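quick one
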Amino acid sequence: MKVLNFINGELQEAVNGQSMDNYNPAKGEVYAQVPDSDHQDVHLAYDAAQAAYPNWSVLPAEEKFKYLNAIAEGIDKRRDEFALAESIDQGKPFWLAKNEMIRSAQNFRFFATAAMQFASESHATEDRAINYTLRQSIGVVGCISPWNLPLYLFSWKIAPALAAGNTVVAKPSEFTPATAHLLSEVCQEVGLPHGVLNIVHGLGPKVGQAMVEHPRIKAISFTGGTATGKHIAATAGPMFKKLSLELGGKNPNIIFEDADIEKAIKTTVNTSFLNQGEICLCGSRLLVHESLYDKVKEEMVKRAKALVVGDPQDEKTRVGAIVSKPHYEKVLSYIELAKQEGGRVLAGGEALHPEGFESGWFIAPTVIEGLGPACRTNTEEIFGPVITLMSFKTEEEALQIANATEYGLAATVWTENLTRAHRFASQLEFGIVWVNCWLLRDLRTPFGGAKSSGVGREGGWEAMRFFTEPKNVCIALK
Ligand code: NDP
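structure w/ NDP:
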């Protein structure tokens, strides 16, 4: 496969003619070439987006709706091809990639309708004046996304940016460019006007940095690691750019003594290991009431060991390959750290080499116990198929452990006690709290993290507000 930049409606190589290797993580082999673009391509993409902006921004909402819907249909029509590309590129099981392609198309469909429904407020100041808020598109905006849910998170940014009337320069992760390339083809197929969406492939410190530094890209929507987010904020802050930062997490999954235990355990296996644990919303710290601890531990260990790890294209596979060699090494190094910190590995804890995929980057689903809440294993993001188990005696203790991290993305709570569910949810320092469920998403709800997990929210009107500039107009009535 040859991945190309998509600038001004054309698929093209990087201006400097350079490309770099893209790996299939299940095989540990190069299988594609990706443009190794730099600031020159970002500048071309900006020029194209800027030229397209005057027409796109005033295009009637019905027309924007049609284009975004057509893109959704284009993804749906080629769903298996997209899913296979995502699975090979990222290492995730094909069946999971297929679900994500459905959800990526849904992102475009959802924001197509948002383009039609988005409205502004007006405020009557008694009989003296009427105020109304114009929510105007910003201009050219930048969207930067990570490798874990490549097309899903890419579309989650691009769709609202376009629906709100902006034109876009976007960069997917260099590790997972395949579906962004296929999306470029779909944009060509549906005749999206040239320059409305531009996709530049390449390294974060080159392409991403050039986007953040570009003086006329006025807003950046970024999803990725907290360290990168800090760097972006330091660059973009003094330029007074609008910033939306969706960053890392260290999510707790709390099981109370009154939980529906079978349901809690079944979902917790997913919460822990879905997509190799490479979902920002995965629970990596499992907190269990002491009365249930032994039972939950036994079940989690048994079920983690039973998960089929291997060929992402085999429908029996539950856990695929880790996205890249550096990330694989990072996850393994955290397992070593956990042991040094006194953790006992109850399941997994090692690299796997499934038959036919001996050179791939696989890690067995790993369950660790015996660590306190303040150690590095329990406070730093690992972002792999690794969970720790801790027990608690009281609700206060559970809350204290859950909140004892700099991150605040998502928490999951298992209890049948309604009062406790409300009380506990209100005290958790997280942007998202799930009670008796996980990953149940309504695209209208605010999505994002507290503390070091980010700034701002995506989803529904939050995303439409981020991608517009409010202007109040006050008209005197007398
Ligand atoms: P990174 O922060 O490494 O990268 C994210 C994106 O930023 C990539 O496209 C990357 O490019 C780019 N980038 C890197 N350096 C710069 C820079 N200096 N300027 C601009 N862009 C840059 O994150 P990962 O890709 O490793 O993704 C995993 C992280 O994402 C985890 O921390 C996870 O928690 C978080 N995440 C958060 C979510 C949320 O909603 N809060 C959702 C999903 C993931 P390149 O790939 O080329 O380095």
